[in-house]
Amino acid sequence: MAELNSPADAATTAVGERIPTVIVDDAHLIYRVYGGGNGSAASPAAALRRIVRRQPARQTLREVHAVKGVSFTAYRGEAIGLIGSNGSGKSTLLRAIAGLMPVNRGAIYTQGQPSLLGVNAALLGDLSGERNVELGCLAMGMSPEEVKKVAPEILSFSGINERGDFASLPMRTYSSGMGARLRFAISAAKRHDVLLIDEALATGDARFRRRSEQRIRQLREDAGTVFLVSHSIGSIRDTCERSIWLESGLIRMDGPTDEVAQAYEDYMANR
Amino acid sequence: MANTAVADAGSGLSRAELAARHGLTVAGARPTLAAYVKQVWSYRHFITTYANAKAVSAFSQARLGQAWQVLTPLTNAAVYFLIFGVILNTKRNVPNFIAYLCVGVFVFTFTQAAVMGGTRAISGNLGLIRALHFPRASLPIATTLTQFRNLLYAMAVLVVIVLATGEPINLEWLLVVPAILLMTVFNAGLAMILARLGSKLTDMKQIMPFVMRTWMYGSGVLYSVKVFEENLPALVAQLVHINPLLVYIELVRHAMLENTPLTSSAPVLWLLAIAWAVVVGLGGFIYFWRGEQEYGRG
Questions:
Q1: Were both Cys, which of A36, A229, B68, B163 would link to B59 (CB 3.0–4.6 Å)?
Q2: In this complex, do B24 and A144 lie within 8 Å of one another by their Cβ atoms?
């Protein structure tokens, strides 16, 4: 266990007990989805008939049970990989740990305010890249002075100005890769205690991926605990000692990355 | 295995006890009201930047661009002038009817836009809410500020119209400032109430235009509500007189127009304006705060 506790000074208490940073206790997460009804259920006549007969609107309101009772404890100094097939509830679980989505049942306890480093942060497409950098930094709680200081670094890290002055163009004109790079650069500009990374490594071209991996290593050194969601087993093996395998909203395996990744790869190969 | 109640085999504590022992807090828990006020205050730069950005981006795809900030109220006034001033030549026993009408329409539009923006403030920004951590009240407050900005442009147009229709400038005009500030507090509260309602009831977006239309007819925008007294029971007519939008519109008219008829005396109107701003502004903030941890669920 000794090699797991990389910031050795603060990872344990005086009596050698490990310090938990994230405790997930039987967490359930349910999305409520409106719409998506098809066929006859979508016509006004059918909707009226349902209202008149007081039938539940089964086609218009549906629930998606994304996470069905997950429990684990993460400790300071750990880097934990979350793996699982598409739709297994990984991103939803990260949102809940970040406090962005409330649990429907169970509880999640965290030390401080975990930050979600995602590529999905919706920015305003009609605004220029520069203005979006400013807005994104303010939304992360920076002061206007800090924003002035980090904004040039963010723009140069994202590399969107490498082919001309794209920073002053509206974001809706960016290619999907450029947009993702700028969003990652914005969210990586801040230091975090508990860092949640959602597929951030998969954005951009090979050169940007190298740079972002390096940035994440830096952030990891500063952060107490890191969660990494990725479909690239390679990057999980590189960064995480422990892995949790989620399947259909349940934990299938929790343990050292080598064992979990091996089991996951065997499982995926046989599907 | 995965779902055992005991977190650590060694310590024998439940997960909740382990969390309490190490000072961990529930993720996304609602802060106290005082802490929440402090949070919103520390995000003031985000709120103003977001409000300005929204106002700018609304016209960014139009060829005339930001000129529409002034052109929109101006075109609005031109339409009313054409219909009521030129074609119908309406007077309705109101002196300077065009200026009377324009004050009503511009001030009403402020609330209408804040209400519509507030209804969508949470439901239309779920992507942002599920990605970043910030006090959610920033969003309805920012929409109100965006509309406040639009109102300032409308007021500039209004000054020109009022002067052009022969009203003199005097010190009473300064009363427009407190009237509009009180109205902004009222609108922010209203936007927060509707933001919370709109985040749960997805039908609000469809219902609100009809609510606002009804409210407009009861606020003396296009005509004096004096006509109501002839057709409604006295009690209902009294209710119309305390209607907050009527109060704010009449205050602005009272400040800018010389001989405008008032439904209540000016001191009563000011008291009502303050009461509405305090009740709805504070009440809306508290109501919104109570739902804070739920907004990410959508």
A1: B68
A2: no
Task: Say if residues B258 and B171 touch (Cβ distance below 8 Å).
Answer: no
Q: What's chain A's Rg over C-alpha atoms?
A: 21
Q: How far is the C-alpha of B64 from the C-alpha of A213, rounded, in Å? A: 44
CA atoms of A128 and B53, how far apart (whole Å): 10
Which residue of chain A comes nearest to B296, CA vs CA?
A101
- The tens digit of pLDDT for each residue in A73-98 reads 998 888 899 998 888 888 889 888 88
A18, A24, A25, A63, best to mutate vs chain B, most B CBs in 10 Å: A25
A10 or A238, greater pLDDT: A238
Q: Record the tokens describing residue A59, joined without a space.
A: 């086609």
* B130-158: average pLDDT: 90
**Same domain, yes or no: B86 and B190:** yes
Distant-in-sequence, close-in-space partners of B50: CB < 8 Å, separation ≥ 6: A135, A138, A139, B138, B139, B142
Min Cα distance A141 → chain B (Å) is 7
- Complex confidence, ipTM: 0.76
Contacts of A71 in chain B (CB under 8 A): 2-4, 7, 15
In this structure, the answer to whether residues B112 and B239 fall within a common structural domain is yes
Inter-chain CB proximity A102 and B15 less than 8 Å: no
| Cβ <8 Å between A102 and B131 | no
How many domains is chain B partitioned into structurally?
A: 2
Name the class of domain A2-31+66-114+192-269: alpha beta
pLDDT tens track for A16-56: 678 888 899 999 998 877 766 555 556 777 777 777 777 66
Compare CB distances from A141 to B4, B131, B134 and report the shortest one's residue.
Answer: B134
Q: Give the rounded distance of the alpha carbon of B6 from its chain centre.
A: 50
Amino acid at A55: Q
Whether A98 sits inside 8 A of B26 (CB atoms) is no
Q: How many CB pairs under 8 A join A and B?
A: 148
- Give yes or no for A134 touching B (CB within 8 A): yes
Range of the domain at B11: 1-28
B280-283: long-range pairs with CB below 8 Å, 24+: B280/B185, B280/B186, B280/B189, B280/B190, B280/B193, B280/B244, B281/B185, B281/B186, B281/B188, B281/B189, B282/B189, B283/B189, B283/B193
Interface test with B, best of A100, A186, A225 (most B CBs within 10 A): A100
Distance from CA of B10 to the nearest CA of A (A): 10
pLDDT of residue B84 exceeding 60:
yes
Domain ranges (residues) in chain A: 2-31+66-114+192-269
